[in-house]
Amino acid sequence: MAGKSNTSFSTLFWNIWVRSQLHPVKLGLLKARFDEIITKHKPDVIGLNEVLADKTTGQAPILAHLESLGYHTYFVPFSPERTGELNGSALACRHEVKNIQFLELGPDKSAARRGEPGHTIKLILASIPHAGQTVNIVVNHLAHLVPYNWSTHVVHHKAFRRIVSEAELQATTIIGGDFNQLKFMPRLWKAKETYNRATGTFLNPTWKLLGKVPVIQANYDNIFWTKCGQLELVEFKILKRRPSDHAPLLAQFTVPENA
Asked: Quick one: pLDDT at residue 1?
């Protein structure tokens, strides 16, 4: 009996940075960077953090651009920025999702300090049909790990761990985003027992202060995928971060094709 064939499935996770969207010139550079990435790598799924959308209409310029390139987009707002726009996470897919949920992780304490209390951070969980089965995608963004936000980060992390511990997410699941955790921290919560992981290195970090300041850097951004054998990593790349302060993480997987 012939063995099952494998199909390719590629993901891109990127914190695109609030500042890259506040000025038309910077927004133009961000759109041009997406054009380059999509033309070259053609990701099936794109997970984004720090997406800005109009407070009244909920429309996000960068998502409108991705839609013009053939993607279906889904946006979940967190809270307003000082400039008035809504800040949130987003998912863009080449095909419509089977199911999508926006699940609360906890309060947005940074927004409360900006005078906008009562808002929450959400995680995106989507089920995407592919190769005769379902690939689960999680877009995550935990609270920034600074002193005033430590307790909130813990709350977010506990909610995240509870969500990704659900039985249906123990196979064919890819998790990505800005975790705002130092590189050693996932080992503390035993991520290695359940997930494979890809992130940056000291010489090629995923984040630099203002996108360029040397030494002040970290590997906040991660891609995790379940260790069930249903997903095999073919290629992982840390792409150029400009015009963001975070680098895009590109991962290509093979998925066994169900008959």
From this structure: 34
